[in-house]
Queue: 4 jobs
Job 1
Amino acid sequence: HGQDLQVCGVLSHTGCDGSDLAARLRAADFPYRSGAENLAVCACDAAEAVRLWMGSPGHRANLLQPEATLMGADRRTDAADPRREQWVLVLGRERP
C-alpha cells in the first residue's frame, strides 16, 4: 500500500484501484480475523510516528487493540518532499 500511495500521490486508506484494507489483506492471502491500518506522513522517525498515532484517538485505538497479534510496517521517503517520511502500519490477527 505504501508504494501504491506514492504512485497516487495521496495519503489515503483507499488504494489507487479503490481497494480497502480488507481487499489488500485478501490479495496478500492473509487469512485475517481482524485488521487495522495507520498512515502518517511526517518529518519523523518511527518513534515519532507512533507518538503522533498515540495522540489520535482512532490511531491509538488501532495500536492498543488487544486482538492484534501481528503487524507489518512500511516506511518510504515522501516523493513530493524527500525530507518527509511516509509510514504505513498494518495490524491484524489471523483466523484460527
Job 2
Amino acid sequence: MKNRIPVVLLACGSFNPITNMHLRLFEVARDHLHQTGRYQVTEGIISPVNDNYGKKDLAASHHRVAMARLALQTSDWIRVDPWESEQTQWMETVKVLRHHHSELLRSLPQREGPDHTKALALAPTAVPELKLLCGADILKTFQTPNLWEDAHIQEIVEKFGLVCVGRAGHDLKGYISESPILRRYQHNIHLAREPVLNEISATSIRRALGQGQSVKYLLPDTVIAYIKDHNLYTTDGSWKGTGTLSKEGKSS
C-alpha cells in the first residue's frame, strides 16, 4: 500500500436505523478503491443526519448515533461522528464534507517553517482525500430538480470525489451521462459493484418492525436489542419483533 493516496470515506444519511447494507457499502467501496492500485482507504466515517432534516419516522439523532456505534463495535476502521447530528439545524451534505475535510487537515502533523509559521509536515500527496460514499439512489437524486444546488454537486465531485456502490435497477453510468456536471468530473466518480446482491433498505426494515416482524440478520443483533429496549419504529409504542420478514421487506 506504500505510495498510494490515502482516502477517508464519508457516508451521510439518516441511518434510520443503520443496517448491514450500510456497513457493506464501506467494505465494497474500500475493496474497489484498493483494487485500482492507486488508493489506500484509511478510515470510514458515518455521519447521521440532523433531526431537523424533517424526514417522516426519523428517530431522534441520539438513538441513531447510538445504534451506529453499536453496529460498528466489530469494525476496526469505520466510526460514527455525531457532529452533523449535533448542529442546531440541518446541513447540506457539502457543508458536512467541508467540516470533515478541515478536521482531516487539522489532524495532520505540523512543523514550524523558517518564518515561524505552521506548515504541514507531510508532502501534499500524503494529505488524505475525503470522498463521499453513497448508494445508487443518492446518485440518482442529483437529477431531481431543486433538490441539490448545481454548485454543491460540482464541489462534491470536483473537490472531494464520489464513490457510489451500484444497486439492482439503477443505471449509474446513465445517471452520469445525463448530467453535464457529473459527466465533466466523471474521472473523480468511482463506481463500485456489490458482488453479493443485497436489497436491504431501512424503509423496509421500519415497515417490518411496525408490523411486528423479525429483522434478525438484517441488522446487527446489538442494534435490534437497542430498538427493542427503546421501543423504536413501532406503530403502537410496543415492540413485538416476532415472525419472519416477508417478501414485502424489499427495498423501496
Job 3
Amino acid sequence: MIIFITGASHTGKTALAQKLLAQYQYPYFSIDHLKMGLIRSGYTHLTPEDDEELTDYLWPILREMAKTAIENHQNLIIEGNCIPFDWKKDFTEEYLPHIRYYCLVMSENYIRNHFQDIKTYANMVEKRMNDDWCTMEHVLEENAKFLALAQKYHANTIWIDDKYEINIDLWE
C-alpha cells in the first residue's frame, strides 16, 4: 500500500508518517530529503521556496516510485507538500486501490489558538535549522490554500480544529 501525506508546512506530515511507521512498520520517504538533495547537489536550480515548480519537477519521480512499490508488493509512505491534488490522473485503475491520500489541514481557529504549540512541535521529528519564516500569517495563508485545493479536488482531508489528534486506520 502507498500512503501519500500532504499538507502545508507545520501540519505534522512527518510526525504522522513516523506514527504510521511505528504502528504499521511501513517505511516512509520524506520528499524534503529528495528536494534538498537535488537542490544542494546542483541537479536543479530551483530553491526550497519554489513550491509549484518543485512539485512539477519531483512528482514524476515520486509517482513512479509509488508505482514501483505497488508492483513489488511493498508498502511505502510518501510525505511532503509536493504531491499534487490531481494525483489520481497519473495512475490507472490497477494502482488506485493500493493508494491512500491524506491532506492535513489546520483550521484558522486551531492556528490562532495553538500557534505556539505549532512552533514548539515543529521540531518533534526533525530539527529545523531556522524556523523564523514561520509566522502565524504564513501558516494561516498556507492552510487556507491547502483547504481550498482539497475541497476543489475532493481530497481526503484530515481536519485539525479543536485539538491535534490524528488517528488513521489504513484498513477502513
Job 4
Amino acid sequence: MSEMRLIVVGAAGRMGQALVRAVAAAEGVTLSGAVERAGSPHLGRDAGAVAGLEPLGVPISDDPLPLFAAADGVLDFTSPAATVQFAELAAQARIVHVVGTTGCSADDEAKIHAAARHAVVVKSGNMSLGVNLLAQLVRQAARALDAEFDIEVVEMHHRMKVDAPSGTALLLGEAAAAGRGVDLGAHSARGRDGHTGARRTGDIGFASLRGGTVVGDHTVVFAGPGERIELSHRAEDRSLFARGALRAALWGRGRKPGLYTMADVLGFSD
C-alpha cells in the first residue's frame, strides 16, 4: 500500500510541530499538507523548518480545501471551532480525521458525530497508549469497588492550557462512571469552593491544577475506609500523543465511516 498522505492542521503550534516531526520520522506516512489560521506569521514557511527539521517541501497554507482533496487523513489538535470546520471538510473528502482537540461543547460533539457518517473519525481526549490503558484500569477498579470508595480525578497541565478539566481527566471520569454504571454528568463535582457541605456519595470529583510547563499529569484516586488506591499517568513529552495520533490514522485507513476512539485503535475491550 502506498504511503498515507497526512495533513497537519495547526501546524505551527506546539502540538502541530510535534505532529510534523512524528510524520517526518515515521514509515508508511508522508506529510502532504500543513495548515494554519489566516493571518498566521508562519504562512508560506516550510512546515519542516517551523518544526525544527530540514525543509520538507510543504509550505504552511491557510487554504485547507485543496489539501484535504489530495490527502488520506488529517491530524487535528486545534480548537473546537476549527475542529468542527475540519470535520466538515474531512467528511466531504472522505478521509480519516484524527481529533485530539479537547474542550468541545455538546453542539460541537454533535457536529463531529454527524461528520462521522461520511468519514472515519478517531476522537479521544488523549491519544497515548498509557492513558488509554489507565482508562481501562479505572473502569475495572470502579466496577470492583463499591460506593464506599470515593473517586477523585486530579490533573495538572502547563499554565497556557485553556480548558478544565482536561480532556484526559474527562476521559478518565467517563471510564469511572462507566465502571459504576452511572451518568458522569449527573454524578460529577467540579470546582469546589466555600462551604460546600459533605461530599455527596457516588460523585466523581475533579480537581484541575495549572502551572509551569507540565505536559500532563493525571491521577485517579479511589478513597475508601482506611485505604486509598491511586492510579496515575505522567506525560513527559508531546511526542507520545503524536505517535498515538499516527497509529490512529493508519488504523483508520480503509475502515468504514464512523466515530471511533483510541480504545478501538488499541483493541481494548471489557
